[in-house]
Amino acid sequence: MAILWGRYVEFHIFPYSYAEYLQLMQQPAGRASYLAYLQKGGLPELYNLPTVESEKQYVASVKDTILLRDIVKRKPVRDVRLLDDIFIYLVNNASNLFSVQHIVNFFKSKNRKVSYDTLSNYLGYIEEAFLAYKTERYNIKGKDVVAGNCKYYLNDLSFKNFLYPGFAYGVGYLLENAVYLELRRLGYIVYTGSFRDKEVDFVAMKDDRVIYLQATYMLETAQTMEREYAPLLTIGDNYEKYVVSMDEVQFPSNEGVRHIQAWNLKEIL
Questions:
Q1: How many CB atoms lie within 10 A of CB 246?
Q2: Which of 54, 202, 209, 236 shows the smallest number of beta carbons within 10 Å?
Q3: pLDDT of residue 2
């Protein structure tokens, strides 16, 4: 943040990008280094710590500092445990579509009474602290934002990798989160797209440019190819369309839909 003649300009600083990771680690771009980046995360201090245990302690301290100091001290939080549990829910459901009511129902199933308004407020506090980002749904045909279900993405993958590794969370979800962060880092406004009955992971907008992207771990089977390409092939406009994966083989374009390997994503943005 910089002060300019009584005003201020806010700069949103993201954790290390993949490109910064490569420079720091002096590694070549490729599947191995990208996977290592996904499994580590981008918090700079992590790369100065000697052991996995010290890394876990550091990530936990970052989370607790933001929740307890930045949020609890500044916002009217009456239930600190609930705030923490909401963040855990976001970590383990990042890149999934859900609504505030879904979370209310989740806590209800655990015999915990949580009001819609309280939960909505706490989610807003977490967003304001930049621990997670809410991504609205965008109706591609109608060109408007749709109320209801949305997605959340984490500010850094280390929260998942170091704090809650026991929950099932595939590499594909980490990849999707990393693609989201790269789009935001480069100045795109990002939505989750919907077109008819199909979902598009990202509708990214910057100036006059619109890009549709699907993110998937591997395009191993014909079924996976169909699932990832079909939503993009259904869209009839001429905006750029990409499927991002971690396949070591570069697939040819399919009716204008291009395949891009995750470690080369920045080249097309």
A1: 20
A2: 236
A3: 42
User: Could you state, in order of their start, the residue ranges of all structural domains in the chain?
Assistant: 2-268
Distance, in Å, from the CA atom of 66 to the CA atom of 74, rounded to the nearest integer, reads 11
Task: Identify the pLDDT of residue 24.
Answer: 97
> Which letter does DSSP use for residue 254 in this model?
B
Cα dihedral 67, 69, 73, 74 in deg (nearest 10): -80
Q: Is 37 in a helix, a strand, or coil?
A: helix
Q: At what angle do helices 171-185 and 31-40 cross, to 10 degrees?
A: 90
CA gap 90, 16 in Å, rounded: 21
Average pLDDT for the chain: 93
d(CA 96, CA 254): 27
CB atoms within 10 A of CB 59: 22
CA dihedral over 21, 22, 26, 31, signed as positive or negative: positive
pLDDT on residue 170: 82
Question: Above 80 in pLDDT, residue 224?
Answer: yes
Beta-strand relationship, 7-9 and 2-4: antiparallel
Burial 81-108 (b: 16+ CB within 10 A, else e): ebbbbbbebbbebbbebbebeebbebbe
Q: Is the dihedral of CA 231, 188, 238, 145 positive or negative?
A: positive
Q: pLDDT tens-digit profile of 13-52?
A: 799 999 999 999 999 999 999 999 999 999 999 999 999 9
Report yes or no on whether pTM surpasses 0.90: yes
Q: What are phi and psi of 84, to 5 degrees?
A: -65, -40
